[in-house]
Design goal:
473 residues; mainly alpha; 2 domains; 0% strand
């Protein structure tokens, strides 16, 4: 069941109608049943994994609250992390590592047979395992008390708006909202409706219409001049953004209608001027998770510059691997790690620091353009099928760049048409530093934007029901 389907719309209408008339405790039972139904609609066999993760981490949290010795506490933390990482590792990475070990030993002349298991990747497993692990880690650190209510914890883990593609929520923010009675304000309803509409535009109008343009360039056997590779990379950059940010906005919007606030996961990430800013604006829930539970425990920026660089590279490489079992994702993570290291070093030089953070129009435009294209090259790495594919496409941009060979009707014009509305709204959001700035516009302007949004969705939207890209992660 995907957000951009009639099945989900009917599902939500029924759930919401019941939700509005039930008392608080019954609302939580409804959310749990609805969330499990939502997840089972993908494949009911994997519902057991979600329940097992919920029970294991709820139990570990309760026992951590009672444990009197540090040794017992460490044992319980190890049990929780071991269970979740084993679950994630088997279903997501088993064949990846088996294949690479087979290749490595084969190169050494050792012919060893490795077992491969052809299993489906349970949708959302990367997200809900990170959610439950963060809860146990926070309880272990005594940052939050363990919950004693299994129902509330199960809703926290399985809450359907964020279940399969985030945001990756923290117990400190969501559990309290589930535990307390909820009052739905008019502002929440208005903001929620706008977020849902804007999310549908990002997904159906922007992402799904740009997907064929990106596929045209990245598909196997495609041979394009450098300028068309560049345009196809731009198309994928806005496709993946519209797809993922669209999901997050629909999730936030539906949750607001139920009186529950989810965190912002995107803040106009293509209007930034440095890698540090990018990761404060792109997939915020993952970047803060990696910072709090991986980068800082590794030592963060404490210690020598060499240790800081090591910690950044390790964190970003693992963040890349989180996205999928392929070396291209690891390379993408390492690439962003190198960007973070390079910009940290550049900021030590006064001239470069003024260029990166300068307030002049030329400095702002130049630093933005450089960062946007560095980000797009990262998306080329992310979308490519192999290291050889990365090399071929990079070579095309570097050596076959002939502006006169641009595919105007097939690439350039559609790219401009499908990204223009997104960029106009994001320019206003970035200027006001407010992702809900449209809701603050004067009445006439606001309703004009609403009308244009619905017009673009219903007349030019791609209603093929394509799944969200991040479902595969």
């Amino acid at each position: 069941m995907v957000f951009n389907s009639l099945q989900f719309i009917w599902f939500f209408v029924v759930v919401y109608a019941l939700y509005r008339v039930l008392p608080h405790r019954a609302q939580n039972w409804l959310l749990l049943v609805a969330s499990y139904y939502f997840y089972a609609a993908w494949d009911w066999r994997f519902l057991g994994l979600l329940m097992a993760s919920t029970l294991v981490d709820f139990t570990c949290g309760r026992l951590l609250g009672r444990a009197s010795t540090q040794r017992t506490r460490r044992l319980l933390l190890t049990l929780s992390l071991g269970f979740n990482l084993t679950l994630l590792g088997f279903f997501k990475y088993f064949n990846f590592f088996a294949y690479n070990l087979h290749t490595m030993f084969g190169a050494l002349g050792w012919q060893l047979d490795f077992v491969t298991v052809h299993v489906l990747l349970p949708v959302g497993i990367s997200f809900y395992t990170f959610v439950t692990m963060s809860y146990v880690i926070d309880v272990y650190r005594r940052e939050i008390p363990p919950t004693r209510d299994l129902l509330d914890f199960a809703v926290f883990v399985a809450y359907f708006p964020h279940l399969v593609a985030g945001p990756i929520l923290r117990a400190s923010r969501l559990l309290a909202q589930i535990d307390a009675p909820r009052r739905i304000s008019r502002d929440q309803i208005r903001d929620g409706c706008w977020l849902i509409a804007w999310g549908f535009l990002q997904k159906i109008f922007v992402a799904d219409n740009l997907a064929p343009l990106a596929n045209m360039v990245f598909e196997p056997g495609a041979h394009h001049t450098g300028v068309n590779v560049l345009l196809g990379t731009y198309a994928f950059a806005f496709q993946i953004y519209g797809d993922f940010a669209g999901y997050s906005n629909i999730a936030r919007g539906t949750s607001k209608l139920m009186g529950i606030e989810l965190i912002e996961n995107f803040r106009f990430p293509y209007f930034v001027r440095s890698p540090q800013e990018f990761w404060r604006h792109w997939h915020i829930s993952l970047s803060t998770w990696l910072r709090d539970y991986l980068y800082i425990p590794l030592g963060g920026n404490r210690g020598s510059a060499a240790r800081t660089r090591r910690n950044l590279l390790m964190t970003m490489a693992l963040g890349g691997l989180w996205h999928g079992a392929a070396w291209t994702f690891v390379l993408w993570g390492l690439y962003h790690g190198l960007l973070l290291v390079a910009y940290r070093e550049a900021e030590r030089v006064a001239v470069l620091k003024r260029w990166i953070h300068g307030t002049g129009a030329l400095a702002r435009a130049t630093s933005w353009a450089v960062m946007f294209h560095l980000t797009c090259f990262g998306w080329l790495i992310f979308r490519a099928r192999s290291a050889q594919h990365i090399g071929a496409m990079t070579s095309a941009v570097a050596t076959l760049f002939a502006p006169g060979s641009v595919n105007v009707e097939g690439l350039l014009v559609p790219l401009l048409l499908y990204t223009a509305p997104l960029l106009l709204v994001h320019a206003a959001e970035a200027y006001a530093d407010d992702v809900l700035v449209v809701r603050r516009f004067p009445t006439f302007v606001r309703y004009s934007v609403y009308a244009a949004t619905f017009y673009l969705i219903f007349l030019f939207g791609n209603f093929g029901g394509a799944e969200f890209i991040y479902f595969q992660f």
